[in-house]
Each structure stands twice: as structure tokens, then as C-alpha cells.
Amino acid sequence: MAPIEFNWNNDNGNRIYAVEWPARNARAVIGLIHGVGEHCRRYDEMAAWYNQHDIAVVGYDRQGFGRSEGRKGYAEDYKEYVDEIARLLINCERRYPDLPVFLYGHSMGGHLLLRYLIRRNPNISGAIVSAPHIRLSFTPSPILVGMGKLMRNFYPTFTQDSALDTNMLSRNPTVKPKYEADPLVHAKLTSRTGIDILENAAELDVYADGLKVPTLMMHGAADGLTSPEGTKAFASRNPENVTLKIWPELYHELHFEPEREQVFNYVLDWIEGKLSEVHRKPKSV
Prior knowledge:
The protein contains eight helices and ten strands. The protein is an alpha/beta fold. The chain has one domain (4-280): Alpha/Beta hydrolase fold, catalytic domain (Rossmann fold). An eight-stranded mixed β-sheet has the order 1-2-4-3-5-6-9-10, with helices on both faces. The mean pLDDT is 94.
């Protein structure tokens, strides 16, 4: 089935691009939250794979990214990014009423998903957090960080290049050239949002109050962008409801790696385990 495009307007009046990858006999739905600089249609292949296994997928482009409106790499309030996840969940529930919903966040999307789980405690069947930005695998330029902090309050829309090392996205040789040629990808981060990301990651890096939602956390052991050690430490501090999977040798974008079908199958097995738990629960009277 062909993807179905739709949109909504956020509280700022920005038109948010969204897409549904439908499944004919869906038994669950995944809500997809993409990473920094990219957009949801980079996940077409992954969504199609889950569709073949009767899992529908719904995704969106964060404001200021992809096809969505808004200043590139900017949110006046970091809460706006979390509000978008709440809207995604509403759309998943409206399009697939009575089906279990799983939220899937990658990189910055995984970072935002963890914040959403902690702050909002949503009623969902599970969360998949892929290569989240809890720590970076490298030390960001002190000059760029210092400039961001300096500009944040009196020039919050001051824009810098994120300097993402595209060589570290994936070991798949097709990923880097496609990413760099994609007109919907950009490397822009504003002073306010860039520092907000770093500060919120630092909060996640000490968080120890647990997660109430069943959560699968995954990371490639060779990720040179976001730190697998940060993910391991988060899971160690918050063991209840958390399943940790570290993939040896894999880079940042697990869903593009040569072993991606193994990753997809692992996630599917985890989802099916949660679906079995739902079916085993006695009905309330």
C-alpha cells in the first residue's frame, strides 16, 4: 500500500508534514520520531519492512526539518518538540483505534522520546529508543558551544552548522552520498535549540527515576556520533522496564546498516513479546 501524506498545524501555526505507511491487517502501529537534520521519509524502507509484518507506521517531520514549516533547527521552547510527539500519538490512535501503539525514536528522536516518556508518562504499549543522544561520542567544538551559549538569550535564532560527520552514519556505502544529496536534509542548528539539546541530554545522563513504559534501548557499539556508553549507563540506572541491546560493530543508523534486517527482526520480536503480554492480560470488568 502506498504511503498516505497528511499534515497538522502546531501551536505556532507551522504546518507539520506527516505520513502514514499503512498495513492491511495491522496488529499494531509504530509512531516514528526522526533524528536531527533529517526527515521521516528516510525511513521508507524500514516502514515497508514492518508493513510486511502487519505493523503500520506513522511518522512526521519535526518543525524546521524536512517538509515541515518553521525556521531550520529552531524551537522557541524545547517543549514544542515534545508536544509534537503527543500529536503523533494522537494521530496513531485516530488512524488505528484499539490497536497497540509503540513509539520509535532515533538519535535526537530517541532523546526526545525519553524526555516524553519521563515527562508525560504516555499510555502506550512500548517504546523503541535507537542510538539516543544522551552523550555524544565526540567532544563538540568548544568554540561552537561557547558561541551558542553566548548567543542563546539575545540572538536565539543565530544559526550554525552542526558539523555532523556523515562518515559515521553507517557502514553501508550508499548512505553517506544519499544523505548529502538529499535536499530535505540540513545541518542547521540555532543557538537556542543547540544548547537546549546539550542541556537536556545532560539531564538524561543523570536521570535515575525509572521508566514506567516498557522500553527497548538499542545502540551500535561503534557509533561515533551518539555514545553507546551513555545508553548503557542510562539503562543501568533505570533497569526496570528497560531492555538493552548493544549491536557489535554497528554505526549510528542501525536501520541502514548492512545488518539492518537483523535489527528489524529483533525489534519485531520485542514488539511481539509485548503484544503477547497484552493478550494475556485479563479483561477488566
